[in-house]
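User: Here's a chain of 192 residues. Predict its fold as tokens.
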Amino acid sequence: MVKVGKQAALIVVDVQNDFCPGGALPVPEGDKVVPVLNRYIEFFRSIGATIFFTRDWHPVDHISFKTQGGIWPPHCILNTWGAEFHPALKVGERDFIVSKGFERSREAYSGFQGTDLDEQLKRLNIKELFVGGLATDYCVKNTVLDGLKRGYRVYLLEDAVRGVDVNEGDSLRAIEEMVKAGAVKISFKDLE
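Assistant: Prediction complete.
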């Protein structure tokens, strides 16, 4: 069992319309993480722990887009429906929202890349991160690895992630990589 205390933060990665079915860059069954994440959100709120939501917030000519020589179709363009959080995701007024990828010429797969996430976590005296969301093999993986590099204890919410799997097995390899780097895989049943 994992005890969640005041020095823990839940980080919900990129659960946006464009990454769910019907979006510009859908993760297969991406919307299936929403009810599971909502259970984590309710749990973290009930104990007064901090919750962060990351989001891609791209300009229309972002470097990652195929139109700019990148590998992805245009997605999560700031102030569009595609960039909004999934409508069923329980984002609260007191939760923190971290926008990433808003600079045209910079990639941002991690919630730490080009943001003040690390500063906010340190200011709140957070030591442990519980990370779930989309997509396992890209933004979740990079956020987890960056959290570990910065000295946080990181838990991967294995029941609350889905991957793109551009190449078959990418998500499984991403999970192996995160665990090898020091992340701990847990599910909701493991919380105390």
